[in-house]
Amino acid sequence: MRGSTIIPENIRWPAGLQRAIDTFLSLSGTLIVASDFDGVLAPLVDDPSQSRPLEASASSLAAIQHGQDGRIQVALVSGRRINELAQLAAPTPGMRLYGTHGAESGIISDSGELNARSTQLTEQQEAELTEVSSLAHLLADSARGAWVEHKDTSIVLHTRLASSVDTERIERELRSFARTRNVHTMIGHDVTEISATGASKGASVTALRAELGAVGVLYLGDDVTDETVFAVLNGPDIGIKVGPGETAATYRVENPHEVGFVLSYIADKVNADL
Ligand SMILES: [Mg+2]
Q1: What is the 44 CA–ligand 1 centroid distance (Å)?
Q2: Are residues 25 and 105 both part of a single domain?
Q3: Which residue, 170, 195, 220, sits at the end of a domain?
Q4: Residues 96, 143 share a domain
Q5: Which residues, 6+ apart, have CB-to-CB distance to 259 below 8 Å?
Q6: Domain range spanning residue 231?
Q7: Ligand 1 midpoint to CA 23 (Å)
Q8: Are residue 62 and residue 164 in the same domain, yes or no?
Q9: 180 C-alpha to center of ligand 1: Å?
Q10: How high is the mean pLDDT of the chain?
């Protein structure tokens, strides 16, 4: 049993969020609590290999997954490759993981291992990706600080360390090329990702909801790609946007520390009812 979390008195809950969570948890049936990783559970850092979830969030998600006889399914949904996500996010048995925006999916076994599967590309999709990759490398070579990351089903142009002028130029060129091909463009914080599959975070959460017959979904995200999830929420579902920017989510918190308070509140409620 967890000890009660101390939520600072000066934490300002977004209007209505606490009540929405209480209502959500009172629904009878399976619930999904799902979250993006970077910028939500883990503060954003310049070196992505150094990302770590805040302790309050990691321990709360574990407590939510293990509370109430598995009535609540925890899912981590990220643009990262699934193996990387599993290494960094400290997921516990039973949690679902979605990597590369859902092109990879998996579950953490009782022994703590990741059982994952990945979308297989057709020859045509492989060819499209190779073309996009060639251009992305040319563009990255023309801009100091830019680099290309290869995933199984997509390529990513990273511009976090490039100048804003270069970033604007190479992102625009890559995106306009992508529009002439049968590929999907996703835009995030300092990244343009071109995917050969139509996978999206929203499609992943929708598929999980259908698979489990879940009656409610709570989702936390900070990226443009998380909007694909906020867009498919309805009814008693709860969407929480983290940080600034336009969003379809109903609620907003400022940063990963506030996410920690929200998840701690849920974990305490879930386990207090045991
Ligand atoms: Mg994020």
Answers
A1: 8
A2: yes
A3: 195
A4: no
A5: 35, 40, 41, 54, 57, 220, 240, 242, 253
A6: 17-119+200-272
A7: 26
A8: no
A9: 27
A10: 93
Q: What does the pLDDT average to over 34-42? A: 97
Query: Does the pLDDT at position 161 exceed 60?
Result: yes
The Å distance, Cα 189 to ligand 1 centre, comes to 8
Same domain, 45 and 70: yes
Task: Give the C-alpha separation, 166 to 161, whole Å.
Answer: 10
pTM of structure: 0.88
**Tens digit of pLDDT for each residue in 113-126?**
999 988 899 999 99
Distances (CA, A) of 7 to 17, 258, 259: 15, 10, 12
Q: What's the CA-to-centroid distance between 79 and ligand 1, angstroms?
A: 8
| CA 1 to centroid of ligand 1, rounded, Å | 30
Q: Are 123 and 134 in contact (CB under 8 A)?
A: no
Tell me, yes or no, whether 170 and 266 share the same domain.
no
CB atoms within 5 A of ion ligand 1 belong to 36, 38-39, 222-223
- Per-residue pLDDT for 24 more than 90? yes
How confident is the model over 247-260, as pLDDT tens digits? 999 999 999 999 99
Name the domain count of the chain.
2
Residue 40 CA, ligand 1 centroid: distance in Å? 6
